[in-house]
Amino acid sequence: MKAYDFLDTAPKIGALVAIEGTDRLLAERVRDAIVARELPEDIRALNCSSVTIESVDDCAQIEEAISAMPFLATRRVVIVNDAQNAKAAPRRALLELAQRCAEGENLLVLCDLVAPRSTRPVSLGSQLGRSAQRIDCSVNEDVRARFVSEELAAAGAEAERQVLAHLSRSESDLASIRNDLAKLSLLGRTIRLADLEQESLAVDDPKPYRFAGALVEGRLAEAFTILGDCFEHDPRNAAMPLLSALANEYALLWEMARPGGTLPARMAWRERVLRPIARRVGERRARAGYERALRGIESIVTGRAGSDLEDLRLLVERTSLELALR
User: Fold this and answer.
1) How many CA atoms lie within 13 A of 109 on its CB side?
2) What percent of the chain has pLDDT over 90?
3) Is the full-model pTM beyond 0.90?
4) How many CA atoms lie within 13 A of 229 on its CB side?
5) For the chain, what is the radius of gyration of the CA atoms?
6) Is 86 helix (H, G, I), strand (E, B) or coil?
7) What is the spatial distance between Cα 303 and Cα 295, in angstroms, rounded to a whole number?
């Protein structure tokens, strides 16, 4: 079953679910929908266990959780995240456990983010066959088109048809599309293709990238030197790319700070540096940093930041200091 078919039709959920496919954001949406349907919020914490495969020594901890009695609920929900990262032996043990749980009373959810027809590794869902309810979170043009429409509606924004077509045909993961639309929706007008292209150019500009990287990595003197250089050479157009780069940097941290979070393939080369920072900053602070940078962009777009060049520079400097001192 495709992810949106599951979300739309809300079918009955059996004892074993395999969430597969390669888009993490869509997989998380499906996982969260399962938990919301199965467990009322007031008893959710008491009846839902969530682990990453790398955080357990063996499957005994998972088996213990799935064997426990529910508390004021019809059943417990146990989620195993990032099963695709398990080595061969733990993966076999997880498969055997899942086969034993297929007829159980509680619900085991395996988040195995590989393509359903993957051979290295072979997807757990394909090995479990009919005993598992398989939900495919792969992304294609139709999925991207619907996702873009939903994100625009949630933001109360509109976009040109060319924007919808461009994003639908892109190879971007849904998290990257969400971040771009969140920034562009602050424009307060119909998003044009030129706006999307300008956003891409801003991200590709090396100086804002270097500024954001230096700030996040704690090299404050270097970050503020780059900031000053940007305003010196192009004072009228410096603020937006700098804040956009900050938003992108914190979006990456936010993704990596989430359980099992990974960088998009095009940014994988930065994992060695960003992974320990994300671990230290944590999901809540990384998200707050992302949202703070977005508020800075919004204040420029709405005019609240003022039009004076000193006001714009002060905005970027103040935002940067707030993030650096969190």
Assistant:
1) 24
2) 51
3) no
4) 11
5) 22
6) coil
7) 12
